Amino acid sequence: MKHEKLEKQLGLWDVFAISTGAMFSSGFFLLPGIAAAETGPSVFLAYLFAGVLVLPTMLSVSELCTAMPRAGGTYYFIDRSLGPLMGTIGGFGSWLALVLKSAFALIGMGAYIGIFMDVPITLVAVVLTIFFGLVNIIGAKESSFLQKILVAALLGIMFFYIVQGLFHIFSLDFFEITRQQFSPFFINGVNGVLATVGMVFVSYAGLTKVASVAEEVENPDRNIPLGMIMSLIVAVFVYVVGVYLMVGLLEPEAFRSDLTPVATAGEVFLDWLPEPTGLILVVIAAIAAFASTGNAGIMSASRYPMAMARDRLLALRFSEISKRYGTPKIAIIATVLLMIFFLLAFEVEAVAKLASAFQLLLFGLLNLAVIVMRESQIEEYDPGFRSPLYPWLQIMGMIISVFLILEMGLLSIMFTALIAVFSVGWYFYYAHNKIEREGAIFHVHARLGQRRYHGLEHEMRTILREKGLRDEDPYEEVVARSMVIDNLDSSVSYKEVINKAVSLLAGRTELPENKLSKIFYGVNQEGAIPIGRGVALNHARVEQDIRAEMVLIRVKGGLDIDAEQFESLSREKQDDKQKVRAFIFLVSSEKHSGSHLRILAHIAEMVDTRHFMDRWLTAEGEADIREIMLRDEHFINLVITQDDETSSMIGKEIKDVKLPGDSLVAILERDGELVIPHGDTIIREGDKISIIGEKEAIEQAKQLKKGS
Question: Whole-model pTM?
Fold first, then answer.
């Protein structure tokens, strides 16, 4: 089923703001005093250890996000790896846990607003929920813009707070403060620290919530891992240093019973500001923290019902995208209504704490998901970021989750079990008979001789098409040196087309013709060649470490091919009988299988456009055929003339011509004939050259067209 896609509107700083904003709320403005009662002055170390312990899950989520950037994040990863039953549990649990955390954050925001205004806290929280819901409906970019303002205000005040606090401590007798305030360091021994780590660990749980909006992130391979790493570094710094200041400046007994320790500590070293400026700054920071958690929570939480509806685990209405705003309006409204229900019907703080155990269960499942996806050996699973130290890091992440869940207590475990039981019941009541897919776990089973689910491979290929090429993929170079056969008579057979392509590829790769013929005939007989919109994409991989080579064949009259037995190249329904006019042959090395698959996916995406065949049939000659295959922003054609800046190239060898960036001369046409460009090829006036390179380099190369 084809789904409406969310717009990619979020960049690196949006990812950073969502991750950071989802972490800071009660974990910093409420929890430190409660945590200090468990372990004493060593509480700041508990925050440090918790930050380190979240690393395995953060790295696992980064890998999953870059491999499968889809709305729903945690739900989607668990569903596609462990199957729809586990996906249902993960989807409902993630949605509920995030709704509760967001509602709790807005309760906290209402409490801080109540310092200056005598208003009902719950009413304020409900109004704020509606406000943030409306912002999210208007657009992800608008919501993220608000998020960046809130996070900027929060971090700006927090860094000022920390600098002032450190200056105050070091202006006093540092060693005396250490002796008085940090002794005894462990009031309950090592067990106290471990218990406290479990308590404060959930302060970092928001770090991975950006996964649910991964579909809306530009360049997810870079922006998601980098944004999350930046966010974790900042969070650990603020948590550890901020809590260290509270320990160093507040009376131990008072600190351990203080529910507003940030404000209390601020009164100690911000007393030089006009009263009550220090308190106002802390309250603004707290409000920004709670607001950013609430806003990011609604944005992230609403993507879970949307993703589940896409997969028929919920009613399809939840997956609808607003035509005006490009956001999942129904899913956002449902999330807002659920938050309001919990705000009005329950003691949100108590229920939110219970949901923390389920969050830890999800962390464990996400680490397991990476192991399943890797071991499934699905070729199309192609993360732009790979978690290091596999599988030991993931195993450690699962062990950490189990250990911390046991630390949460029986009530939290029972709450988690209740969510699981409800989810299983819903799955068998509503969804079981509506879906046919299975997770990657069945591909692991296939390695043991059991069945596998091929639909997942097709879905992964669709994701590859949407993600596009990576910078290191030599697509332009492959197209530039491709061999072209033009105007073949339509009376030839498909077998003859393959033979002509094989002959050229054998000469270029120095591989035996019979070996290449056997490979291409084999994949055709298996129906593994994608055909659609008049294009057949023939591809093969060999064991030898060769560079990728391509042959482009145009048959204007077309060859009639029974496409029913082949994989469809187009996302739209195609006729069983195809008149194929474009044959694309690609051969690569098994050692570069990832690049091979991405190039195939890019070609598939390109030829699936409505105008490709029109351009293909009207192309004039080999050079035009190659240009159709190139990305417009990655190449430029220049005619060498005395009338513009290209005159500086006349009479020079190509190796002596200074081109912008890493761009290069890929095609040279002289007197109507193609010349294979080499380093010692001399450029002459009247030559037509095609330069390929990165976008920035091509933009600079355009300056050569300007008059001299």
Answer: 0.82
